[in-house]
Design brief:
Blueprint lengths: L2 E4 L5 H12 L3 E6 L2 H11 L5 E5 L5 H14 L4 E4 L17 H29 L2 E5 L12 H20 L4 E6 L6 H6 L11 H14 L4 E4 H9 L2
Parallel strand pairs: 1-2, 1-4, 2-3, 4-5, 5-6, 6-7
């Protein structure tokens, strides 16, 4: 059975991806910061032997080592989805007022942690001919006022992704921009606003599955583009 590690899988897009892969028969290692929410999600995803839940913060060195240990127990890794992200303050401040210590935390979670996990697991991905998908954002390429902290961390992640792809051609390395979705994090970005017009996370999952199934060249892909191409087939 193929094995996937998905971070930030207790809710939102990470959970939607995990649920689809579980339905396909994948074995999963999933993490999230909230132990109770993660256990509830794992219970919905499948049998305990097929879904390993490891609660913790991806910014923590010990937690990342535990994730790598769980992967080693499986003996292989076919897919890594670095989905765990941190928005930062809500409402989001402008960069001129952004607390630097908070910005450092955002970068630790959104940029440094995905790289650190990849450093631990790239050999296993290469051995399996696997793929790594770093979840990005349109805020990485568009200068939205108020999104400077989060957007800058995702822009840095995009560049790290591109360089890793050039340095490790045996592994498909993708930055995936899912677009706006109806998630708790997106709601926190717009406190008090109605975001019901945003896409449900599960409607974007087919776009990410195209990367997994078709393995196009490494690079940055937008969910809307992948869905548009798929709808014309």
């Amino acid at each position: 059975m193929p094995v996937a590690l998905i971070t930030g899988a207790s809710r939102g897009f990470g959970f939607a991806v995990a649920r689809e892969l579980a339905a396909r028969g994948w074995e999963l290692i999933v993490d999230a910061r909230d132990p109770a929410a993660l256990q509830r999600a794992a219970g919905e995803l499948g049998a305990p032997g097929r879904v390993i839940a490891v609660a913790g913060d991806v910014a923590d060195t010990g937690h990342r080592a535990e994730l790598a240990r769980r992967v080693a127990e499986h003996g292989r890794l076919d897919l890594l989805v670095n989905n765990a992200s941190l928005l930062g303050p809500s409402p989001q401040p402008g960069l001129d007022e952004y607390p630097i210590e908070v910005l450092e935390r955002v970068f630790r979670v959104n940029t440094f942690a995905p790289l650190a996990i990849l450093q631990l697991l790239l050999p296993r991905l290469a051995a399996a001919g696997g793929a790594a998908i770093n979840i990005s954002s349109d805020a990485a390429v568009e200068p939205y006022p108020g999104w400077g902290g989060y957007g800058a961390s995702k822009a840095a992640l995009d560049q790290l992704t591109a360089i890793l792809a050039a340095e490790h051609p045996a592994v498909r390395v993708y930055a995936f921009d899912p677009g706006d979705m109806r998630t708790a994090m997106h709601q926190a970005a717009y406190p008090g606003e109605d975001i019901s017009d945003r896409a449900e996370p599960e409607t974007v999952v087919p776009a990410l599955l195209r990367l997994i199934d078709e393995r196009p060249p490494s690079g940055r892909y937008r969910g809307s583009d992948l869905l548009a191409v798929g709808s014309r087939r």
